[in-house]
Amino acid sequence: MARRLGAVQVAGSQRLGLGGVLGPDRLPRPASSDTLPPGVLTTALRSALRVLRKIVALATLINIDERAVIGPGTFIPHFGPIQINGEASIGADCAIHQVCTIGAGSRPGAPVIEDHVFIGAHTCVLGPVRIGAGAVIGSGAVVIGDIPAGATAVGVPAHPIAR
Question: Engineered SS bond to 98: which of 25, 78, 122, 141, CB 3.0-4.6 Å?
Answer without folding.
Answer: 78
